[in-house]
Amino acid sequence: MRRAALALCCLLISVPALAEDMPKSPKAPPPEPLPDATCDTTKADAGDWLAGRWVAPYSKWEFKRDAQGLTWKLEQKPDLNSNLGYKQGTVIEGKVSELSACTLRLTAVENGETAFDFEGVRTEDGKIYGYATNKAGQGARWTLRRER
User: Fold this and answer.
1) What's in the keyword line of the UniProt record (predicted)?
2) Would you list the domain boundaries of the chain?
């Protein structure tokens, strides 16, 4: 009985130390400032690494190649990041305005004004960390990962 109690005490003492090593995802925001690009950002890229579906907390992103080049669509899910002032179910569409092998810039234009501007960096682990601003200047941080 004493051994069991001693083992339990040792386990309880080690739990806080173990918790510090656990990942903080998905609540952990992207690093600030953005990580350094790990590629040559002066070379343009076709964007094959970006095409497809990506997800972030409370949103879905889809990148497609069409006649205009690479386009994107963002669909907000319930309980979205209120920093940008968008309502639940908002859909934002735009085009990829700048792209390298590990960086991107997305824009959405509405009535001749930039309604959404996103700048992101792809890291070695395949995630995209980025910042977005709306036309009112409000900003939000995003962490995108490939949809499973």
Assistant:
1) Signal
2) 25-146
DSSP symbol at 29: P
Q: What is the pTM of this model?
A: 0.72
Which residues does 121 contact at the CB level (< 8 Å), separation at least 6? 34, 35, 36, 37, 102, 103, 128, 129, 130
CATH 1.10.10 fits 25-146, yes or no: no
More reliable by pLDDT, 19 or 67: 67
Q: How far apart are CA 113 and CA 73, in angstroms?
A: 18
Residue bearing tokens 């040559």: 40
Closest CA to 134 of 84, 92, 90: 84
Collapse the DSSP code of 79 into the 3-class scheme (helix H, G, I; strand E, B; otherwise coil) and give the result.
coil
CA distance 105 to 98: 5
Cβ contact 130:142 at 8 Å: yes
Who wins on pLDDT, 32 or 43? Answer: 43
CA distances from 58 to 48, 79, 80, 103, 110 (A): 25, 7, 5, 22, 23
User: Of 54-58, 84-88, 98-102, 109-113, which range is least confident?
Assistant: 84-88
> Can you say how many angstroms the Cα of residue 18 is from the centroid of all Cα atoms in its chain?
27
The Cα 28–Cα 82 span in angstroms is 16
